């Protein structure tokens, strides 16, 4: 497999963690002695098809360099943007300028430390078999209610048929995703994941079922849940 066939991880890590609160951005909170971002990067870099990672951090980030993290694969840092999509595009631009850019990218939130090797393997196999790429996602299992703004009462029940929770990683051809994000951001379109940018460009990404345990650390209550999941994954790997 040539370098160009390899996959490169793109890790947006420039958020402030407003919903988590506290002085430390959630990607740098400690889980069982390691920062969240280390768990997420290790989960990606352990996969043999992932050649390296580029991490987008805030211009005000004082945590990354202080961590002095070492990896056995290349991990580079770029400046993130005001929105997650811009952070991702900045990383894609850096990859595009490499002497031999990777053909595919695996975009993964720095705050999803519980992604499993099996999910990566299944996503890479399906996404790269289709030019439109693909994403990990989880089918909606609960009845969904909609509220009217400012009123904590049900306004309606939303039909959940065909609805999925988008997760990450999301895997796309570097050239196509970079162009799709440039087009969406250039048009002032708010996109909250890479698949949405690809959809706006006319692609139909594959849905690859991911684990409900692949949660995004968002609120304080998520911390203990993520620690339990990571412990359970370690216990499983030791059996
Ligand atoms: N301008 C931004 C905003 C978010 N992210 C990253 O995108 C991922 C998912 O975003 P989210 O969970 O929304 O993180 P925050 O934006 O930090 O959270 P909040 O919305 O609560 O502030 C995180 O790894 C976050 O660091 C980023 O790279 N650049
Ligand atoms: C990309 C994402 O994880 C897909 O569910 C999610 O959109 C990121 O969270 P955000 O709060 O929208 O930045």
Account of the protein in words:
With 239 residues, the chain is an alpha/beta fold. It has seven helices and eleven strands. The strands form three sheets. Strands 5-4-1-6-10-7-11 form a seven-stranded mixed β-sheet, with helices on both faces. Strands 2-3 form a two-stranded antiparallel sheet. It has a two-stranded antiparallel sheet with strand order 8-9. Strand 2 (30-31) and strand 3 form a beta hairpin. Helix 3 crosses helix 5 (174-186) and helix 5 crosses helix 6 (194-200). The radius of gyration is 18 Å and the shape is globular. The structure holds cytidine-5'-triphosphate and ligand LQXTBERG.
Strand sequence of the main sheet, in spatial order?
Answer: 5-4-1-6-10-7-11
Give the biggest sheet. 7 strands, mixed
Helix/sheet category: alpha/beta
User: Into which percentage range does the β-strand content fall?
Assistant: 15-25%
- Poorly predicted ranges: none
Number of alpha- plus pi-helical segments:
7
Rg, nearest Å: 18 Å
């Amino acid at each position: 497999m040539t370098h160009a066939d390899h996959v490169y991880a793109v890790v947006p890590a420039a958020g402030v963690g407003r919903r988590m609160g506290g002085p430390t951005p959630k990607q740098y909170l400690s889980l069982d002695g390691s920062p969240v971002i280390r768990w997420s990067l290790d989960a990606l870099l352990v996969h043999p098809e992932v050649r390296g990672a580029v991490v987008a951090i805030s211009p005000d980030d004082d945590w990354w360099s202080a961590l002095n993290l070492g990896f056995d694969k290349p991990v580079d840092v770029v400046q993130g943007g005001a929105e997650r999509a811009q952070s991702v595009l900045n990383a894609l631009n850096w990859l595009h300028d490499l002497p031999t850019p990777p053909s595919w990218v695996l975009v993964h939130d720095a705050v999803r430390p519980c992604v499993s090797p099996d999910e990566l393997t299944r996503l890479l196999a399906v996404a790269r078999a289709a030019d439109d790429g693909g994403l990990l996602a989880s089918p909606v299992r609960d009845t969904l209610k909609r509220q009217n703004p400012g009123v904590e009462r049900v306004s309606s029940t939303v039909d959940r048929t065909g609805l999925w929770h988008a997760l990450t990683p999301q895997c796309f051809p570097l050239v196509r995703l970079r162009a799709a994000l440039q087009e969406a951001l250039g048009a002032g379109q708010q996109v909250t994941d890479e698949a949405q940018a690809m959809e706006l460009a006319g692609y139909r990404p594959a849905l690859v079922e991911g684990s409900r345990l692949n949660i995004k650390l968002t609120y304080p209550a998520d911390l203990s849940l993520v620690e339990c999941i990571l412990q359970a994954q370690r216990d499983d790997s030791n059996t």
